[in-house]
Amino acid sequence: MAVVPVIFFHAGFTGFSGGFVGVDIFFVISGYLITSIIVAELEAGHFSLRAFYERRARRILPALFLVTLTCIPFALMWMPPEQLKSFGKSVVAVALFVSNIFFWSEAGYFTAAVDEKPLLHTWSLAIEEQYYLIFPLLMILCWPLGSRRIVLLIFLSIIPSFALAQVGSYRWPDATFFLIFSRSWELAIGGLIAFYLKAPMASGRVIRELMSFIGIGLIVWAIIFYSGKTPYPGIYALTPTLGAALIIVFAAPGTILGTILSMRPLVSIGLISYSLYLWHQPLLAFSRVIFSGRQSTPLLLGLIALCVVLSYLSWRFIEKPARKVVFRPSIMAGAAIASVLVAGLGLLAAYGNIGRSFTPVQLAQMAPPNANRDPRLLTCPPAPGSRHDFRACSQNPALKRKAVLYGDSHAGALYLDLAAALSQHGIDLVLLRNGERGARRFECQPLPGNFRYGQFEPDMKARCADQEREVARIANVLGAEYLFVSLRYTFRLFPATGAVDELEYDNGEGGVGDEGFRQYFVLGTKGEVSFSAEDKFTATTNAFRSLIDLFSGRTVLVGPVPEVGWRVENRNRSSILLFGAAEQTISTDYVRFKQRNQFANRILQNIEGHKGALLVQPSDVFCDRLVAGRCVAQLNAVPLYRDDDHLAYDGAKMLSRYIVEQLQARNALR
């Protein structure tokens, strides 16, 4: 009931878009079982913290460390250096039971990048162990208060944790998903069930049948209809957690659902469920490392079958014997030593330079050099007179003539090459960055007039409007002749009803971008939140024109950089591992690009010409020119992109050259 949906979700099977809720079910079950054991032993007067932790070690560590150690040689064989470094760090995090914190620091749960992390799933084990590091101590301290007061305290602990989960799922979605503070309420629900079932209220057969089927219905609903777009956890997590609670309470032996769940095949899955959970993600992740999202359904089914075999073997020969070991003090010492050894191997994998050797060309193809990762952009000084923590990066400060580049990470990817191209004409290009990411509690969005849903406060309308004006003010203080604007427009306009209906780009050929769900809105004529295309068109156009009016020089709008759908570096890694060489050309359909960006381009074309504003289209460089009818992301085995939407140096160089040529052709550059 808990593990199968998770496996099918990670495999990407249709109908299991919400399969990640299996972890929530697992939390409730775990909270119920562990609390029941603690309560029973406290009542009997022989609860021991040492024995409790020793049982946890025997239950969790042997199979976990087996799977972790098995992953290491495959990571050494197949992962390029940066990916191997990240994997090695994750091994250390697993050994220290802080992998939830580690994966939160790296990426969101619903992004494509995490699909290739073999130990991603251990985040939930870390949550569980962090909870049980504290919970037994609290139970011992509170036991003299009596069961009723303990139940009240557990209930009261649920309130702030659930409130944080609800608010955080919109404002801090990644941290809220991974960290214990917003997850402990789910384990606590299981604890309440344990106390309730000590003296349950009498209920008739009809009630038990009805409530148990409502429980399974809630879970099935969440599995089918939830997705990475669902704000989670929070109020949406109530559906699977309450479903699990109803099943635990009411699906007693003799009920229809209780009889079904006690059938031998389901019981067998339950016995090996921990090993199933441990093995499934490494198998799927390494297949993605090799095949870069090109896995066929037969391959995925074969991997699941292999997962079942490995799970049975590890249950039979690792889990089962470990659970039968009689308590000995040396077990805790052995667990500590094993954790240190595993962590040491993780450090060796991360920093020992012992992975597979790749040629310099292959390394560049699997990690294309790009400006966003250039150390020169990490420590830029404050912009003159900035009230919004703007930083001003300059490559040629001695040059008297100035220009400013503003935008999001697409502007960052373009910056160094455009700065080099403009320096040939005696112009120093200054990149404006909005602080060191996250410097403000909620950042204003770089697309003028737009806000991120769930991250809006009453003062943000005025504050963000002032930030947009400050871009022009800083450019004027610098004496800039040009203000270049480069953004991922269509992405930041989602959703615009009937115009932008998908956040990420689907290239129609198997490649779909995935960066974690978010929504953007504008304020309508009455100050209301609006996702309508009409309101977004008006608000974005007006905000852009206001920015242009305030700037004393000429504005140059850099249009949408064609999105790819595939991550170029991952396709290259896959080709190198499978065939020994990267693909010569990676490209996507030009018509599909035009359809995707039609709304954004209509806004930009409406702004073009306002106070002499110019529009330069990157699609003129990459689409229907190098390859007919295609937008090219890699040419002659040279990556023009570093991922699925950001330009690498070679692509940025081509676009920068074209921008300068267009300015010259329009007599806008002297």
Uncertain spans: 436-442
In which order are the strands of the major sheet placed?
Answer: 1-3-2-5-8-10
Compute the number of helices: 26
Shape: globular
Blueprint of the fold:
Layout: H1 3-11, H2 22-44, H3 49-78, H4 81-95, H5 99-106, H6 122-142, H7 147-171, H8 173-178, H9 184-196, H10 205-225, H11 238-250, H12 256-261, H13 264-271, H14 273-291, H15 297-324, H16 330-351, H17 360-366, E1 390-394, E2 401-407, H18 409-423, E3 427-434, E4 451-452, H19 460-477, E5 480-486, H20 489-492, E6 520-523, E7 529-530, H21 533-550, E8 554-558, H22 568-579, E9 586-589, H23 590-596, H24 598-607, E10 614-616, H25 619-622, E11 630-635, E12 638-639, H26 649-665
Helix pairs in contact: 1-14, 2-6, 2-9, 2-11, 3-4, 3-14, 3-15, 3-16, 4-5, 4-16, 5-6, 7-9, 9-11, 10-11, 14-15, 14-22, 18-26, 19-21, 21-24
How does this structure look, described?
The chain is an alpha/beta fold. Helices cover 57% and strands 8% of the residues. It has helices at residues 3-11, 22-44, 49-78, 81-95, 99-106, 122-142, 147-171, 173-178, 184-196, 205-225, 238-250, 256-261, 264-271, 273-291, 297-324, 330-351, 360-366, 409-423, 460-477, 489-492, 533-550, 568-579, 590-596, 598-607, 619-622, 649-665, and strands at 390-394, 401-407, 427-434, 451-452, 480-486, 520-523, 529-530, 554-558, 586-589, 614-616, 630-635, 638-639. Helix 18 links the parallel strand 2 (401-407) and strand 3. Helix 2 packs across helix 9, helix 7 runs antiparallel to helix 9 and helix 14 (273-291) runs antiparallel to helix 15 (297-324). The model is unreliable at 436-442 (pLDDT under 50).
